[in-house]
Amino acid sequence: MTSPAAMEYLFDEKILNNALKIDPKITIKDNFHLRPLARNDFEHGFLAALSQLTEVGDVSRERFDEIFDKMKTNGCYYVTVIEDLDTNRIAGSATLFTEYKFIHGGGLRARIEDVVVDNDYRGQNLGVALVQTLKSLSQVLHCYKLTLDCNDQMISWYRKYFDFQIEEGRSNFMTIRFSSSSSSP
Amino acid sequence: MTSPAAMEYLFDEKILNNALKIDPKITIKDNFHLRPLARNDFEHGFLAALSQLTEVGDVSRERFDEIFDKMKTNGCYYVTVIEDLDTNRIAGSATLFTEYKFIHGGGLRARIEDVVVDNDYRGQNLGVALVQTLKSLSQVLHCYKLTLDCNDQMISWYRKYFDFQIEEGRSNFMTIRFSSSSSSP
């Protein structure tokens, strides 16, 4: 039996449910549950899903809990997952992350990060559901803009399903990598 | 006389001093002081400097304090300013902002945001000093990468002075704006 502590969520599920109400077009099959990251997702393939996006490296249970706690205390991390209820496996994940600003009347900016759908769950609308939910979430949180950086091959997808724009003259993304970390993201 | 509360810094100046030690090439004239944002910078032109970058809008003293407090509690905001010691005016500002990750061994990613030098202080190396300091700061904080998004005309500057790279096939920056906010950033 799962203990209540293990089912602890990273953020309040009510906020996510408010976001889901904005766009009734978000449809995934009934055996999928879109919800905040839970502490026990460590045991249900959350890092395995992320490893299909980039190098996860050596993240122990203790390290996972440490980051989970930091994100939860910080309060600006909305790591959202889709669980396959038949197997309790994490089928996909995406993160909304907010930033306080002095500009724009002291507004809040949102970013989408680390979007991944497990290879075994492709073609079931899960990526669209995740990003559409985070877009709605950023509106629920009253953000003035939502941004992301992506690979060339993802541009048309973000444009088609969510109206993300490459803005003329100001859409350059630049990087410095400090160690021998992997290529992306 | 300035009260101690008014001179309260957003983050520990020691961290910034450690960053400054990394690169002895950072040189600005003696009448400039590079330091963390202080609470009383509201009275010394901090928002006026930011308004040369984008729309600041209506940010009252109370709203400023509220954002300052949120950023300070959050602990991931390194808003760094250069003060003109002759006038106590803010000559420039740039922000380093860090994000917890489950990927890369549970690493920390850094971002540079809201870089601005007041028009009256151009050509005095202040922009280079600010960004170089934040680059060093992201190393002091053991970040695995440092990123930014910028206008076309800034690419060569970030490449030349700091070795920022446009990475082939994965340097696209996309945006959704939700309200009638101004054009940039």
Automatic annotation (TrEMBL), chains A, B:
Recorded catalytic activity of this chain's protein: D-glucosamine 6-phosphate + acetyl-CoA = N-acetyl-D-glucosamine 6-phosphate + CoA + H(+)
What EC number(s) does this enzyme carry?
2.3.1.4
Q: Which family does it belong to?
A: Belongs to the acetyltransferase family. GNA1 subfamily.
Annotated N-acetyltransferase domain ranges read 32-185
Tell whether Membrane is among the UniProt keywords: no
Write the record's keywords in alphabetical order, separated by commas: Acyltransferase, Transferase
Annotated GO molecular function terms are: glucosamine 6-phosphate N-acetyltransferase activity
**Pathway it works in:** Nucleotide-sugar biosynthesis; UDP-N-acetyl-alpha-D-glucosamine biosynthesis; N-acetyl-alpha-D-glucosamine 1-phosphate from alpha-D-glucosamine 6-phosphate (route I): step 1/2
One Pfam family in the UniProt entry: Acetyltransf_1
The record ties this protein, via PROSITE patterns, to: GNAT
What gene is this protein translated from?
Answer: GNPNAT1
Q: Name one GO biological process term.
A: UDP-N-acetylglucosamine biosynthetic process
Query: Cross-referenced SUPFAM superfamilies, in alphabetical order?
Result: Acyl-CoA N-acyltransferases (Nat)
Domain of life assignment: Eukaryota
Coiled coil ranges (UniProt) are none
**Protein name as annotated:** Glucosamine 6-phosphate N-acetyltransferase
